[in-house]
Structures are given as structure tokens and as C-alpha cells.
Amino acid sequence: MSGAFKNRAGRWSKTGLLVLAWGYAGAAGPALANGMASKIPREVRAIWVARWEFLTGEDVRNLVANCTAVGLNRIYFQVRGRGDAFYQSSFEPWGEELQGDPARDGDPGFDPLKTALEAARKHKVQIFAWVNVLPGWKGAQPPRSRKHVVHTHPEWFLMTRGQRRLLLDEDSYTLLNPCLPEVRGYLSSVIGDLASRYAVDGIQLDYIRFLRKAANASEDVPYDAATLSRFRQATGGFPARHPEAWNRFRRVALHQLVSDLAARLHKCRPQAILSVAAVPDLNLAREQYFQEVSHWVDQGWVQEVCPMSYASSLKEFQLSLSRILARIPEAKLVPGIGFYQLPGRMEAADQLSFVRGIAAQGYAIFCYSSCFESRSPYAEPGDPARKKRAELRRLVAEANDQEAKD
Description:
Layout: H1 29-33, E1 44-49, H2 57-69, E2 74-80, H3 112-123, E3 126-132, E4 135-139, H4 149-152, E5 169-175, H5 181-197, E6 202-206, H6 225-235, H7 243-268, E7 273-278, H8 282-289, H9 293-298, E8 304-307, H10 314-325, E9 336-338, H11 345-357, E10 362-366, H12 383-405
Parallel strand pairs: 1-2, 1-10, 2-3, 3-6, 6-7, 7-8, 9-10
Antiparallel strand pairs: 4-5
């Protein structure tokens, strides 16, 4: 299978996954009603570009050119990482990764998103603003900017049942509490500001989920007074005594947040696509992270799901997508392929071919530094790694060239 690429007309039958019509009757949503579908390429060939991949305007222009040179037509360009901005924001400070001038509140002297959009129009590639929604910070030390939400609203961060505020952490993101209306309103304003200022083709929501449900009851979240008060108003009880209602309460908070973000985006840009980078195990996501992506699709809030189905083996990758296909229509899917996990060209070719075989809307590669030389601190060093990246670039170019001919 790795010797050739399956085109979108030739669909796999061995797995029993393929159905000619899903009969999907979900709500179309405001973006579809306004002709959004006409903007979708015949095949989405996307890649994630993280915020540490660039430091200058030239870096951004080069990475857009590199992506288009191998036939990619969409970039998920990260613009919010940890309560910060990689664009001119009315609400949040510049990302510290840009190493901007401290005397100018971290201003890097260029606008990464604006630069990416200008380069993308030249190369005819789509730009989606990739947003880490709930992360408010990551680091043992607080942010330098006093405008950052860590300083302005520490009470918005999750609190454990043991009354520990999750504010600073060197290894993990600390999250804002979506059960609070103030947090949902703030995040809606951030998305509305972004959409009103920049002509993005879409916005991708990442980290729109809770922390995984804690095994230790004292670490359960969110147990701040404001959230508990709202839960008591809704149920008349305490979370520990009403576990199912408590789970539903948190799940509904995320429903409301996604609905609000969709409304703000489509008010500014009716044709823009709202995409979600999703936990691939949908049952686990619903029960442990309170992320119910299938509901968001059914309601028409979300037009695209990118399951992060990163797997080193084809069998594991196939199994993950088969479960997703039972819940999400293939026309809404752009499966993520974790190139960083794959041993080499053959395994990447197998997964690309499988995605094309199920007639998904396209594919998304995670991530840029797996295929290209970059500034990423996570890029694997050394000649063997550079050779592997070159092989993967050639694979992507060949796959996209063949698809263009079919």
C-alpha cells in the first residue's frame, strides 16, 4: 500500500468503514448557509505551524512558501498559546516567544498573522488562526506583561477541590474556567476581536476541554466559590453528591463556550470555518475532558473536526479513525497525522493513503518541524533527522502532485 497513493475516488472497502452516504441531518450552521463550502479546496492539505516556528517576518514568509512548494493549501497558524497573542490584539499581550521589546510591552516589531495572511494570498493558500482556547499560562514564573490574564484575573483559573489555584506550572498549561460566564465572555471577545481585524479563512479551536478528570478527588475541578454557587443554583446540591449532574454541568459549560465563539466568528466572518482540534477518542473526550465534539457538529457550531489521531502504526491509526467515523461525517473530517511519531516515509505514505481512502475532507500534518527545518526547540537535531524531514517533504510533494493529476 505504501508504494502508491489512493485517490479520493478509489475508496477502501476492506475495513468496512466506507459508506456512500451518511444521511447526515445536522444543522447547517450560519457559515454553511452563507456559501462557506465554496471556499473549501477539493482536498484540504493542511499543516500545523506552532508559535515557536517563527521569530521574524522573513521566517513567516519562508514557511508559507515552503508549505505551498510541496502542495499544501492550508496552514493552521498558531496565534494564541497561553493567554497571549501572535497578532495585534486588543485584549492580550504579545507572546513572549517572539522576544519583543520589553520597553514596548513585548512588541516584536512585526505582526505574524498579518504577515502570514499577506504571504498566503500571494501563494493562494488558506490561513486558519489556530487558538489554544482555555490555556491561560504555562511556566513556573508568571508572565512579564502586567496586562496578562494571570495578573488581571487570577480568579478565572481553575481551582481544585483541595482549594489549590492552578495558576503556574512549568510543565503543563494552566486553564481558565469555562464554567464562569466572565471567562466565556472574555474568550468570546478575544475571538471577536481576532475575526474582526484579520480576514482569516477560519479559526481552529484547540485545548477546548477540561483537564482530564482527576483520579484523586481532592484534585477535581473547578471548586471555586463562584462555580459551586452556580452548580447549587442549578441542582440544589454539591458536586460529590451529584456526580452525573456535575459532569453534565461542565460539559454544558463547554457547549455554551463553543456556541458563543461560533456566534462571534460568524457575525464577523459568515463564510469562515470553525474547526476543532479534537481528542480522537470521542468517548474518552466526553467523559473525561467534557469535550463533546459530535454535539457541536450536530448543532452546526463547528464545521470541521481535526481528530488528533497521532499513531505510530497504521493499525492503531485505522482503529482510531474507524471509531470517529461512526460519530462524525467524513465530509466534516480532516484527520491529523502525527508525522513526528512516524519512523519514516513508508509509514507516512500508508496513513496518507488511508485518509484518502475514506474520502475525508483532507488531511492535516502535525507539524511543520517534522517536515521542514525550523526554529522549533522541539525539532529533532542531527543529520539523520534532517534526512528524514527531506524524505517526508518529498513524500508530501509527490502525494499532492498525484492528487492534482487525478
